[in-house]
Amino acid sequence: MDRKRTLRLSGGVAIVVAFVGISIAALVTRDRWWPWLSSKDATAKSAEHQAAIEDAKVLKLSPQARKNLELVSQPVAIQSYWRTVQVPGVVVDRPGLSDRGVTSPAVGVVTQVHAFAGDTVRPGEILFTLRLFSEYLQNTQSELFKATRETQLIKEERARLEKLASSGTIAGSRIIELDQRILRQDGLIQAYRQDLLTRGLAPTQIEQITEGKFVSTIDVVAPPPVGGLRAEGESKLVANADDPSGEGLVYEVQELKAELGQQVQAGQLLSVLSNHRLLYIEGHAFKQEAPMLEQAAQNGWPIDVEFAEDDSRHWPPLEQTFQIRHLANTIDSASRTFDFFISLTNQSRAYEKDGQTFIVWRLRPGQRVRLHIPVEQFENVIVLPTAALVREGPEAYVFSQNGDLFNRLPVHVLHEDRLNVVLANDGSVGPGSYLAQGSGASLNRVLKAQAASGMRADVHVHADGTTHAPH
Prior knowledge:
Elements: H1 2-28, H2 30-55, E1 58-60, H3 63-68, E2 73-75, E3 78-93, E4 99-103, E5 108-113, E6 120-121, E7 126-132, H4 135-167, H5 173-198, H6 203-210, E8 217-221, H7 227-231, E9 251-256, E10 263-264, E11 269-274, E12 278-286, H8 290-299, E13 304-307, E14 324-327, E15 337-345, E16 348-353, E17 356-361, E18 368-385, E19 390-392, E20 395-402, E21 405-410, E22 413-416, E23 420-424, E24 434-436, H9 440-452, E25 460-461, E26 467-468
């Protein structure tokens, strides 16, 4: 009995000694195993925390935060949308309508310049005064005067002989001969008058020539409107209040080609007048895009146009439908592109300074544009600004607003371009939902930040201390 009791006592002592030894060893080596245990516990907590972040779908924004983001929400609208391709272009003059060259009607010397670059003139206003050196023009004036005087003499002779012919003193054939001479002279006079009119002489000057007062100077005036403008309903090229006098067409002197004292020849260009009311948008496309452009031109599909550096805030809207007028049938050898053209009606304003009227055009030749050519139409879709969408890998999300809360919704993207994103109407967005129209990336960052802080917006605390998901 004593032996067994002694063995039990010895075993208990050994266990106590072993436990004490293990405790001492653990305490001595704790620097080795404690970091491993702590990291494992932190990993478990991090995984649990990450799961909470992944589960977060709702964020809360204060009214001030929404104002800082300039956040706007609008109800879901089911609509149609055209998929487009972007093509560069440029605003150009419309040949035969935008610019008008003014030429010298005869050989002469520029003695006075009445309109300078930047000035505005109306049809019939004087641009230049020329001193004539044209031998042909001088001869025409002489011939007109002589034909006029000869006609007067013939008429006087006919009046004198008419009484003798009626009494039978002379033959009646003499009167017939004089009438024929008068007709021939009238034909010559009409031809000389028309020749002088085409040379730029005014009807009053031609009347002076018939009286023997020859013209030594001639005024070159602004030309009348082009008939094509009248046919298109553009009898007044300056829009709204751009023409304060209401007298119609207004030209701007774009460039002077002659100087004071310069001798000019008949047909020589003196100045260039412009009116940028009617212009073209010249698009530049590649050959593989020709079928799409041809289809848009044939069907009359409207083209969306973005004008570079256009200050639309200080101009009225361009209320016009842009359509392709025609396609060029040649390809530029350098750029390997072909051109197509869209008619453009410009806008302008006028201001007065030092007694002169000056015009400012909204759009100018050489201004760059971006053209959106319609290619495919999507029916029954949701269209949002591109900034409203946020992507995370293959997932795409938008945010639906409900008061201060924004719910992140997964969506199916059918098409996305620089301005808009097209979403499938597959039920992922409920009817009547208010969707944020921008700041999608910012809202997603705020959602992750709120989830990481442990303050989830989709859980709220009641007065009794219980927590619930949103109802």
